[in-house]
Amino acid sequence: MFSALSSSIQGTLQRFHRMMEHALDEALDAADEALRPPQGRGGDDASSSSSAAATASASTAGHQNPNPARAADFTPLVGDVHAVKRALMRPPCSLPIELVISILDYAEYWPVLARAERHDRVRYTAATTPGNSVADLYLASPPLPVPEGEDGELVRATPREVRFCIRSRDQGWVSQDRRGLAIGCRSVHPYEHSYSWFDASIIRPTSSIGPSTAIPPALPHLDYDTNPVAKPADAVQQFASASLRFVPRTLAKQRENEETGLLEEVHETEEVGLWKLQSNRVAERGYRVHRILWKEGDGGDADGFVEALQAGDKVGVWARAMFPGWANEVDGMAIEVRGSVI
């Protein structure tokens, strides 16, 4: 009996897998057809070529603009997703909406829900504050979209991944040459004992947000030049006055992600939920681009971040440095949130 049941289940799973593959092929074909430009619109192609050439030129010149999406990536628009959804639900596929959602998520066919870029250079020096610690919200994304109607049905945007791209460096030197230095029998990692780094946080309105909300709360003005803060927790009241708060994460989770015991002193996890995002390489004079991808279900530094996101939230990145002589020089950053819209 159990052998027959097992065989029946395996057969069902195999048919389901084949159906998903067929439906996925249909989805990609439909998306390709929807995005194919009409005949005679050479101007659009020329514009794309010009943009690609400009990007290549900028990279060759040595100044790479942060961009979380690589050139080869295809990112659908919201309209593309709805077009593919309708195509899969009509003959010859005639798939139920639950299977359509599974297929699109399996294919990671997710549009951009929120995106922000900044390209000006800012140098954050730890010695700016009396405590030799500095933090500044260098960039925050627009609020994630709230549920809205599409063809008479409620459409919810569910975040699935967050992409960060950071171009930065530390002060470019340390008091002791670390090249070839070893602790015991272990070589020093180029990111170890780096006190120039970035934290991510989720900024949420204190009141509920819906389609009727005309203007979402604006971020408070944190003036690094005239009144720098030592750590994000010092800005809690300023955010509260702007009807915003930080989504917390537990102290236990944060401690699991600490690279050094010293950094525990500046991660204010009860007041401000901070996820360790990226450190600068130690004593490197040139700028380096770091691309970080956090997805649902990721552990480690990203544990719980994507799952905590909801409508109205903003994703923020704090530039940080600690101890005399340490600096965090940011030359550009981009944040991109992608997710399903069904």
UniProtKB/TrEMBL annotation:
Disordered: annotated span: 34-73
Low complexity biased stretches: 46-61
Species this protein is from: Phyllosticta capitalensis
This protein's name: F-box domain-containing protein
